[in-house]
Design brief:
The chain is an alpha/beta fold. It has helices at 8-46, 166-173, 202-245, and strands spanning 51-52, 66-73, 79-86, 89-100, 105-115, 132-139, 159-161, 177-184. It contains 3 helices and 8 strands; from the N terminus they run αβββββββαβα.
């Protein structure tokens, strides 16, 4: 190692960048594992038995539980979740309060995706008037939801939102309701339902982890190469100067 002289500037750069690159790679590996656990939980609970709406508030972890509902939609207080894209087409997801008659619990039901090609015209949808028996499942967002702008708390309905938090809706309507969104399964009140369970799968995180580790390895290899190469250039220069003096 006495012939390895990379210089203090490259050494400083490596010391600054290398820990960050490794940390980012490890973070992506951790995220991949979290997504695997999440998907496994989803698959297990989707294969399980349905629960009744009245059981949801007492559950410590209701995520992905299948729920049986019977009651009416509230057509006057619809929410439109903006910036939802399907096959390159822009649209919204329609969410409406639903009163489960057996438990008296209000739940916020996501009825699915609707196209909205022309923003000058309102989104077209209809709400069943009759009592319905519905199958749904609980969606719990993994982490904080990013919002582009503040959601309106007043004004005319339906409200156009960039993120939905059911726990914020019920105080506005002076109602007691479940704190998470329920997503419909295929049925008489559903629109397009092809939601991804996670926005980015484990394989994507693994790919990003490989990229970060590859950058870290490339940084180390460049550091070693220039350290040895610089030393060889110095040795060559010293021999050349010695030969001229002779």
């Amino acid at each position: 190692m006495k012939h390895f002289r990379p210089g203090w500037v490259p050494t400083l750069v490596v010391l600054m960048l290398l820990p960050g690159l490794i940390a980012l790679g490890c973070w992506q590996l951790g995220r991949a594992q979290e997504k695997r656990v999440l998907l496994a939980s989803y698959a297990e609970r989707q294969a399980g038995e349905q629960v009744r709406a009245g059981e949801l508030p007492a559950m410590d972890d209701p995520a992905f539980r299948r729920v049986q509902l019977f009651g009416h939609f509230d057509a006057e207080h619809s929410l439109l979740l903006d910036n939802r894209v399907r096959n390159g087409q822009v649209g919204v997801e329609l969410l409406q309060p639903f009163l489960d008659q057996a438990s008296g619990l209000w739940v916020l039901v996501n009825r699915g995706w609707l196209p909205w090609p022309d923003r000058r015209n309102p989104v077209q949808f209809s709400t069943p008037d009759q009592a319905l028996s519905l199958d749904a499942w609980v969606y719990v967002a993994p982490g904080a939801t990013f919002q582009l702008h503040a959601d309106p708390e007043g004004g005319s309905w339906p409200h156009l939102l960039t993120a939905v938090d059911a726990s914020h809706l019920w105080p506005q309507l002076a109602r007691e309701g479940f704190a998470h969104e329920l997503r419909l399964e295929a049925g008489p009140a559903s629109y397009r339902l092809d939601w991804p369970v996670v926005a980015m799968g484990p394989e994507k995180h693994l790919g990003y982890a490989v990229q970060w580790f590859a950058l870290a390895l490339a940084l180390v290899l460049l550091y070693l190469y220039f350290g040895w190469h610089k030393n060889k250039e110095k040795q060559h220069g010293s021999r050349h100067e010695s030969s001229q003096h002779v």
